[in-house]
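Second opinion, please. Please look over this fold, written as tokens:

===
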Amino acid sequence: MAIAAVAPPLPELVSFLEQLPEPHILCDREYRILAANAAYRKQCGGSRNVVGRSCFEVSHRYAVPCDRAGESCPLARSLDSGQRERVLHLHHTPSGEAYENIELTPLRDATGEVAYFIEKLEPLPIARGADNAKSLSGSSPAFTRLLHLVARVAPSDASVLLQGESGTGKELVAQAIHDASRRAARPFVVVDCSGLPETLFESELFGHERGAFTGAAARKPGLIEAASGGTLFLDEVGDMSSACRSSCCACSKPEPIAAWGASNCGAPTCASSRRRTGHWRNGCATAGSARTCTTDSTPSRFPCRRCASAAATCRS
């Protein structure tokens, strides 16, 4: 591994970083890259050497640090706090723009002063910059806040309520949460709540076993069972009747769910609504430690529909 001529760090530290599979760099207080492991050089360097260059030049192609270019800079924040910092940034890579989680850890010298920083990059594959149409796309501050919420909730089994007008991308966000979770290889089942009659709702959702009640001549798997181990997305819960919505409360709770006469099964739940579903949130979603997000489609701020799906504020 090549090292910059100025203030070289300990070779043992450089050797340690070189063995890590994730992209890592070592920076000084002046944003200068002193060492970069093979994973970082492959992902961010392209054909140019990154050692000796500034981190903001390599990652953002900026001439000034991120905090002076309108973004949150983890290095500047760490200098102020003296602690580890995490941010989500849109980076330039040889394959195009990509969102990455950045974890920056300060290292102190023998006097106790912060001398170096180790920066770890973790790609967020569910979203790209505006140059990529195969995933959630955008670069506005609201879009970045939305991705930060997705990255926070995806590793958990919490229920999530997505609120926003029709066409703002609620199902795309639900799919992104599923894809970023450990359940990504399991089913993502969408339930159109507005098109499901009340008389059939419970049967479709929970299913039943043969002989569970009069007339149950055969086993019928429910949609919850179909999504077992994956994610159940209840689209437009605000269009359901109060009785159906009460049944859906069971889906947002952490306890296992069973069809009539069946063994337990279940899946973390995402729900969406274009309405203000206060009853759902206060009476149901919070019982399952849910988070609520709102997608925004303000035309003046987001003329592009793909970008419109990006705006979000957290209401949890």
In short: The mean pLDDT is 75.
